[in-house]
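SAMPLE LOG
Freezer: B-3
Tube label: C17
Construct: single chain, 170 aa
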Amino acid sequence: MTQIRLATEIEGRILQLRDKKIILDRDLALLYGVKPIALRQQVKRNRERFPDDFMFQINKSEADYLVSQKVIPSSKHLGGYLPYAFTQEGVAMLSSVLRSRQAVLVNIQIMRAFVKLRQLISPRKELASKLETLENRIGRHDDAIQEIFRAIRQLMAPPRRPRRKIGFYT
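STRUCTURE (predicted):
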């Protein structure tokens, strides 16, 4: 598989779940050229290397969501188990568990894909921050403009006539 084609395939397999970028175990197994069950066995044997922020098992509602989004063809495709989801850190840790040459090469490409996605997202966050700042500034200007209009209306209103004092004048 060429580097460019592999990179494109990897980027297509990176998903967003629980506000994290992840890759499912079945996709990693396919990329590494191993059976999904073999990958899961290696992970189970080395469970201490995969804390919850590196890897988690998706729940039923998340699996249903992935099926509804056509990420997974059907729940039958899962083979009767809920897949593991690996974050970038979890994928990096897999390189210490799976030591084949193909696994190492694919791991490098996966790390590059995660970095590329992070670089694509970063400018959007900066733009959103600038937009929020602008909205706040406009909001303050709106208040100031409203205050100017109030002052102009007060100036346009007819002047009040002074009241005459009640009582006798000497």
